[in-house]
Model the fold of this input.
Amino acid sequence: MSRKPEVEDRMRNAATGNTGRIVEEVAGCGIKLVASLPDTWISDLIEAFDRDERFIHVAVNREESAIGLCSGAFFGGTGALALMGASGFMTCVYALTKINYTYQIPLLIFITLRGGLGDRAKYHVSNGLYLLPLMESISMPYVIVDSPEKVSLISKAYEQSRVLCRPVVVGFARQVLQQ
Done:
């Protein structure tokens, strides 16, 4: 028995490993829009969202644009995800505190945990030093996904953003994104 062409396309484009688990968890949240900026650690994840017909993927030129686009999607009734590197997230503090906190706009944000253990890129050391203290200083709720077993925290973070009416960050360790 032959499969329909669209089923074959979906199977061919299906992400595998941890990337596939992350994509499925996001889809389970009802998220339809993913706005991203490139980062080497999330390149496979970006490609997976771009190929998956369940999502509208928008590549943006600035992290603040991802925040704005995803916040606007909320008002249109569309679940959204902003996907970026740690350093890009740190540039968004004003947008997040001015727009999302002030107007109580929930948002799920995925970031890389650059500068931590296992990151040999010297220029990301400052991310490792300042990222978590920065999030704590602005009372930004976050969860750390540092093992495949913690991927299920994505849906909990999404739900929490809705309860709090503000953004929640999911930070990914390299070993989860690179498998």
Q: What stands out?
A: The chain has a mean pLDDT of 91. The CA atoms of residues 143 and 153 lie 7 Å apart.
